[in-house]
Amino acid sequence: MKKLSLYIFLILIFSNFVSISKAKEIEVFCLVKNYHLESSTINPKDYKRFAGKIINLLIDTNKKKIFNNSIDSEMYLMTGIDVPIKYRKSGDFINYRNKIKVGEKKTKYEYRVKIKLFQDNYPERLEAKVLQSGFSTQKWEFQIDCKNVTYTEKEIETAKIFKSKNKDKIIKIEKYLKLKKEN
Questions:
Q1: Stated pTM of the model
Q2: In a domain, 36, yes or no
Q3: CA 73 to chain centre
Q4: What is the mean pLDDT of each run of 10 residues along the chain (183 residues)?
Q5: Bridge partners, 66 (sequence order)
Q6: Per the domain annotation, does 57 fall within a domain?
Q7: DSSP assignment of 18-72, as one string?
Q8: How far apart are CA 172 and CA 39, in angstroms?
């Protein structure tokens, strides 16, 4: 009986060690591209503000927290993460909800976000639904492709370019917004 207890104890210790060794940090890089913005419900006036910017999140699987490590401070408006927050995992998704207040007029944003992970914990995409209230009421929905390494300068520059309805013409954001306004 003592040997059986010893084996059970050793198995439990080993399984605990294995689960601790699996705990890691997942780094997520999401480059906001022109087509992400065009297919979203984000106001076209904000395209210039976000296009070509990188959302950088750190998911700590041990603490079950997500940290916003984005270089551009405005990217927290896309993620809803201004301070580290808890998440829950459901299948291949990391889910979190958060509320933040911005500005003197106390505009409120309510976030429901999912980060899709491949089986080996590599990020695939970030999906967000954002409800803005306060000064005005708006709802944003968007999906952004993600990966586990940062982007090149060329990828960042390409993300800032919008194609016009004339497929052979390429227009920078400023011109694109002007065309959108005219229509």
A1: 0.76
A2: yes
A3: 14
A4: 53 49 80 90 88 96 96 92 95 94 84 90 93 83 94 93 58 63 65
A5: 59, 85
A6: yes
A7: HHHHH--EEEEEEE--HHHHHTS-S-GGGHHHHTT-EEEEEEETTTTEEEE--SS
A8: 17
